[in-house]
Amino acid sequence: MLFERPDAGDKAVLLHVELHGQDNPDQDEFAELARSAQIDVVQVASAKRSTPHPRWFVGSGKVDDLKALLQWADASLILINHDLSPGQQRNLEQALNCRMITRTELILTIFAERARSHEGQLQVELAQLKHAQTRLVRGWTHLDRQKGGIGMRGAGEKQIELDQRMLSARVKATEQKLQDVARRRRQNRRSRNRQGTPTVSLVGYTNAGKSTLFNAITQAEVFAKDLLFATLDPTTRKIEVPGAGNVVMTDTVGFVSALPHALVEAFKATLEEVVHSDLLLHVVDGSDPLREDRIEQVQAVLDGIGAAEVPTLIIVNKVDLMDAEQRALLDNTALVSALTGQGVTQLLDSIGTALGVVAPHQVVLSAKDGKNRAWLYQSGAVLDETLLTDGSVKLTVQADDKLLGQMRQRQVHVETTH
To answer: What is the average pLDDT value for the chain, to the nearest integer?
Structure first.
């Protein structure tokens, strides 16, 4: 990481600033982010301002209050639920003699800790590098010029300029690696499209239970825990959906309000899977009192990445934590409990319906036509097979218009439809 990570168990004061007339980040969510980063929040301070102070973001009186609170609580960090300018961050650290961690830096800390795959680590590295490019002024307050030229005479580049150049080179190299990742993903998508395999992506607010639901549906063992951003590395599995055959399902990173732009950009290759999905399962924590707000915030991110037009099915999870009155209000919504398995079978039926399941067709292939038989099985379209007396096989297949067109191209004759 390009800035020092806080250690697990570090004591911190959480500072929440309400800016008048602005959409302020949620204080409880920020406390959960701190818990996910294993930081011990010992005190919470709040402030209200019409506009940020140009020097410290908060007023001078609040700076004095924070200084006393840090000493009283024996804390070494301040977590601020906003992003600061480099100058504001440097000025606060100097005035308080402690580290300031902004909202973006806290999220980057969690991402750096959780990324396990090569792709995930590349994405986090790119987000860190882009963030670091804006913060170099914090590390170089002297801005002394180095000696340059033959014989080291005269003024050369400033140290900050050298660092900016090195960071730019690393950003370019990391972006190139991620472009290679994106290229491989596109190739995989084209392969799935040729096979006619539908794709479904789980999306939703962080900690809504996406990974637990993914495990319940696919029998995978993706890391799932009651923490924000427990899942960073996208996982893909093939599942069998009644009436639809094989379907590829992907578990994706969760969203939060005011998700840093650098993270959205860095995770572009992953988020492309969402954009190109045939169906999105928008998983909502039914026990969250702010679930309607969470739905809007996730939709805003989906709109921002170009996924607004992808068909979406709202899935209310954690129904086991809801009372009968809460459930009654959601009669027309898919209700599940990923933890207990309640509603998962019905959810699979809903996925098949949402994917536009069509009536099955019957196809008769000669005994010699093993190539088309294998292709139909590979496409996940075969529902049933019967061996006829002359050695030919009768297949019952689930085929949409796209697959029917491919069958015509391969001269596979559709005998009857149900």
So the answer is: 80
Lowest pLDDT segment from 138-147, 271-280, 343-352: 138-147
Q: Report the sign of the C-alpha dihedral through residues 317, 319, 325, 330, in that order.
A: positive
Per the structure block, which two tokens stand in for 32? 């959960």
DSSP 3-state of 358: coil
Q: pTM for the complete prediction?
A: 0.68
**Does one domain contain both 32 and 138?**
no
Q: Is the pLDDT of residue 226 over 50?
A: yes
Chain segment 61-99, per-residue pLDDT in tens: 999 999 999 999 889 899 998 888 888 988 999 999 988
CATH number of the domain to which 206 belongs: 3.40.50.300
Query: Which range of residues forms the domain containing residue 244?
Result: 189-354
DSSP assignment, residue 134?
A: T
Cα 359 to its chain centre, rounded Å, is 35
Nearest to 372 by CA among 401, 393, 402, 398: 393
Q: How far apart are CA 220 and CA 249, in angstroms?
A: 11
What distances in angstroms separate CA 138 from CA 54, 100, 120, one per listed residue?
16, 11, 27
Provide the domain count of the chain. 4
